[in-house]
Design brief:
about 150 residues; mainly alpha; 5 helices
Length: about 150
């Protein structure tokens, strides 16, 4: 059986009420479902990469990881959030995400991120190609200048 432990990163203590509210925000934002999907995809990748390991071990790992680590992560992230957001800020944010507009934003965000990532990837490739071409042109000019001097 796998044993997962909690890690302390020197974060200051946070009130249990704040952690509970932060966990609610995590759920309202749909981050819990995204987290579960990431874990499932990761385990699937490991199963494919290490086919000699018994499937039941991977299933146990996934189950334990999902149960223990999400609460651990929330507890570790809460001190960071508490530095920037008050209890009231979290509650108001949760209230927004429970409105029709907030729910629509949560539902639409994965598709928007996916589309924007594609746009950003294309933009980055074009920018990179432009920079590379400028460098190539500059090197050619330097080479031609050097040959003229000889």
């Amino acid at each position: 059986m796998l044993i997962l432990t909690s890690f302390s990163y020197g974060q200051s203590a946070v009130e249990p009420e704040y952690i509970a509210t932060y966990k609610k925000l995590f759920e309202v934002l749909g981050a819990k479902d995204v987290y579960k999907e990431i874990i499932a995809q990761t385990v699937t990748t490991f199963k494919q990469r290490y086919p000699d390991i018994e499937r039941s071990l991977w299933d146990d790992f996934e189950k334990e990881f999902l149960e223990a680590s999400l609460d651990d992560l929330i507890s570790m992230f809460a001190p960071v959030y508490s530095k920037y957001l008050t209890q009231e800020d979290l509650e108001e944010t949760i209230a927004f995400y429970q409105t029709p507009s907030g729910k629509k934003l949560v539902e639409s965000t994965p598709m928007m991120v996916k589309e924007c990532m594609g746009i950003g990837r294309e933009w980055g490739m074009n920018l990179g190609q432009g920079i590379a071409q400028d460098w190539i042109d500059e090197q050619r000019e330097l080479q031609v200048s050097s040959e003229k001097e000889l």
